[in-house]
Design brief:
The complex is a heterodimer of chains A (110) and B (114).
Chain A (H helix, E strand, L loop, with lengths): L3 E3 L2 E5 L4 E6 L6 E7 L6 E7 L4 E4 L2 E6 L4 E6 L8 E9 L2 E6 L3 E6 L1
Parallel strand pairs in A: 2-11
Antiparallel strand pairs in A: 1-3, 3-8, 4-5, 4-9, 6-7, 7-8, 9-10, 9-11
Chain B lengths: L4 E3 L2 E4 L5 E6 L6 E7 L6 E7 L2 E5 L6 E5 L5 E5 L8 E8 L9 E2 L3 E5 L1
The chains are: A mainly beta (110), B mainly beta (114).
Chain lengths: 110, 114
């Protein structure tokens, strides 16, 4: 079963913040976040390992709650370049298969 | 630029034909994963190759097969093409690390089956 992301779509004005949630139905080992622009390949953003890790770079950060089997991606002071579809992906220990979530389409308007 | 290349970029085939897609992994990566991405959906895992051996397979029929070569490049073969096989096919290379590894995606091959 694939992770479920929420919201499915969101429209923001430049400079606003966004939170994208990812919920899995299985015990997780790691969560990966990717951004995909229309017609392009997914671009890696960050990976989080079990243990309640938090990560961030620039104005994009993420958290991973192993017990709740959830991860959230935080985008602060959004820029036009943040537009795209965001996917989380999860893995189980010992299984390298990456299962992508349902996706969240983010549109940033000036 | 991830250093992962795929060929061809676009392909048109008819039902029943066979197709071979190619992927060159990033330097130093010995693992290649293949994904199918239908329009408006997320990538779906097809299979993964590690050091020339299949290392996990998703829910795809046997007419989807693959190879990995000693230089870690890889091929995806699809036989008896069906209309539903129309999709973007992505390969991703990585260096295994117990689920910690980052998968770097190539630009994809867009396949249209008529």
């Amino acid at each position: 079963q694939q992770p479920v992301q929420s919201p499915q779509a969101v429209i923001l004005r430049e400079g606003e913040d966004a939170v994208i949630n990812c919920s899995s139905s299985k015990a997780l080992y790691s969560v990966h976040w990717y951004r995909q622009k229309h017609g392009e390949a997914p671009v890696f953003l960050m990976i989080l390992l079990k243990g309640g890790e938090q990560k961030g770079h620039d104005k994009i950060s993420a958290s991973f709650n192993e017990k709740k089997q959830q991860s959230s991606l935080y985008l602060t002071a959004s820029q036009l370049s943040y537009s795209g579809t965001y996917f989380c992906g999860d893995t189980n220990f010992g299984n390298e298969k990456l299962t992508f979530g349902t996706g969240t389409r983010l549109t940033i308007i000036p | 630029e991830t250093g992962v290349t795929q060929s061809p970029t676009h392909l048109i085939k008819t039902r029943g034909q066979q197709v071979t897609l190619r992927c060159s992994s990033q330097s130093g990566h010995n693992t290649v994963s293949w994904y199918q991405q239908a329009l408006g959906q997320g990538p779906q895992f097809i299979f993964q190759y590690y050091r020339e051996e299949e290392n996990g397979r998703g829910n795809f029929p046997p007419r989807f097969s693959g190879l990995q070569f000693p230089n870690y490049s890889s091929e995806l073969n699809v036989n008896a093409l069906e209309l539903d096989d129309s999709a973007l096919y992505l390969c991703a290379s990585s260096f295994p690390g117990q689920g910690q590894e980052t998968q770097y995606f190539g630009p994809g091959t867009r396949l249209l089956v008529l």
